[in-house]
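From the methods appendix. Each design record in this collection lists the tokenized structure first, followed by the designed amino acid sequence. Records were kept in a plain field format so they could be parsed without special tools. The example shown here is representative of the layout used throughout.

RECORD:
FOLD TOKENS (458 positions):
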């Protein structure tokens, strides 16, 4: 390796107009990557997080809770295209239910919370260079959303994909946009600073940020958590949930033995021979929801002190330059996770929340659930479960993985309130008003069309 790869990558980023802060962070990670660092967190270097405070035990008076929420900004990650589900625009523009998209529900949750609690509560979307335009057009339907002269969004940075064999910026003339990748949602902090939005928020009197994935509609504005976080005096807090056997893939918080600091460990930071520890829901009983809270002033102080390089752990992600073509050249994407900032702030903490604050949609399996009668939208546009039970859904990936294929095969929502599990193998189609009762498995060799009003099982 030589300095040429880094110099070329820096030049490419400057030519693209990226801020120097983003280039400094990329350069720091590049040097780590070049030196052979993998970002692995070994099991014998950590202890499990076993006893975080429980939201169910938190009691905050209405006045301080409202005051804290009034000083909070809601930030939603909106950079994903949902390519794994066959989408070519912002994933949050995907229709959810009742004629509303994910973005519609997010906006209406914020507007409803403003009215209910009498708070300012601005909404910011962290877009990518691929989602900003579509999102801006969709938000034009909500002229009342803007607050205090703040923008409705800011764009995360991008960085060059690197050749796996030489760490040179990859060239792909067939589609030059594929030469670039997002730097992971750990870029949130740099993008907030470099865009000027961080200073704008602080000057407008905001002190706290609540950041969540845009596809997790369980994270409606919550004055109790805002009040708890403000009263804690902590610079940073992460929401965690109790793990079940179905939560083995998500990252988890742990305590680093060396300094007793909370840290985040993701799958990519776990050695292959230690995955048994990582996936053990009894050893590590809480998973990280990617719902975060942080103090805006203390973030700004940390960024200034560290010259924008917070030092979030490196994530080395191996891909192909064209994700849709596995024969295209192998590349390395340098990434970081925003949740890893938990180790940057001394005194960072965590709180265990209910599963109602963790309703992500990563596949059409979850999309089927959220469109079903298992959930209702209440008057504040929060998704409310209609039953205490959970339903395991498994749709055949050959026919239902992509949203367009999924929608072509389901004429409408499926009734799942009386179901335990629903597995579909093969190419089935479903009419309106289909209901599933108990445990239902459809086999590929009988695949056909399920007529309107059919009750499966029972």
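DESIGN:
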């Amino acid at each position: 390796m030589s300095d040429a790869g880094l110099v070329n990558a820096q030049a490419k980023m400057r030519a693209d107009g990226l801020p120097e802060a983003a280039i400094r962070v990329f350069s720091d990670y590049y040097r780590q990557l070049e030196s052979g660092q993998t970002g692995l967190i070994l099991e014998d270097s950590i202890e499990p997080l076993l006893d975080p405070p429980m939201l169910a035990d938190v009691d905050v008076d209405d006045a301080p809770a409202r005051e804290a929420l009034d000083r909070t900004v809601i930030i939603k990650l909106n950079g994903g295209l949902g390519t794994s589900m066959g989408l070519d625009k912002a994933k949050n523009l995907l229709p959810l239910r009742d004629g509303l998209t994910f973005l519609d529900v997010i906006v209406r949750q914020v507007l409803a919370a403003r009215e209910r609690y009498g708070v300012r509560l601005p909404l910011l979307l962290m877009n990518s260079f691929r989602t900003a335009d579509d999102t801006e057009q969709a938000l034009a339907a909500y002229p009342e959303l803007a607050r205090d002269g703040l923008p409705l969004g800011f764009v995360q940075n991008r960085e060059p994909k690197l050749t796996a064999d030489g760490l040179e910026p990859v060239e792909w003339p067939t589609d030059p946009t594929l030469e670039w990748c997002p730097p992971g949602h750990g870029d949130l902090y740099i993008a907030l600073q470099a865009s000027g939005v961080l200073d704008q928020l602080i000057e407008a009197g905001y002190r706290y940020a609540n950041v969540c994935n845009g596809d997790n509609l369980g994270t409606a504005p919550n004055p109790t958590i805002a009040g708890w976080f403000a009263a804690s005096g902590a610079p940073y807090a992460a929401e965690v949930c109790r793990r079940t056997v179905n939560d083995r893939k998500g990252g988890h918080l742990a305590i680093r033995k060396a300094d007793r600091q909370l840290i985040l460990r993701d799958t990519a930071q776990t050695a292959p021979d230690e995955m048994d520890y990582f996936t053990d829901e009894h050893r590590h009983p809480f998973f990280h929801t990617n719902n975060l809270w942080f103090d805006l002033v203390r973030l700004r102080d940390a960024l200034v002190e560290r010259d924008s390089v917070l030092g979030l752990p490196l994530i080395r992600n191996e891909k192909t330059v064209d994700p849709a073509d596995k024969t295209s050249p192998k590349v390395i994407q340098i990434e970081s996770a925003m949740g890893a900032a938990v180790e940057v702030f001394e005194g960072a903490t965590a709180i265990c929340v209910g599963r109602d604050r963790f309703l992500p949609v990563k596949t059409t399996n979850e999309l089927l659930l959220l469109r079903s009668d298992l959930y209702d939208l209440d008057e504040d546009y929060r998704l409310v479960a209609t039953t205490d039970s959970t339903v395991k859904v498994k749709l055949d990936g050959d026919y239902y993985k992509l949203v367009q294929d999924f929608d072509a095969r389901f004429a409408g929502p499926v009734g799942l309130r009386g179901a335990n599990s629903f597995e579909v193998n093969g190419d089935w189609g479903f009419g309106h008003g289909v209901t599933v009762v108990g445990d239902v498995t459809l086999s590929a060799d009988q695949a056909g069309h399920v007529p309107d009003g059919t009750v499966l099982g029972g």
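APPENDIX NOTE: Residues 4-357 form a domain with the Spore Coat Polysaccharide Biosynthesis Protein SpsA; Chain A fold (CATH 3.90.550.10).
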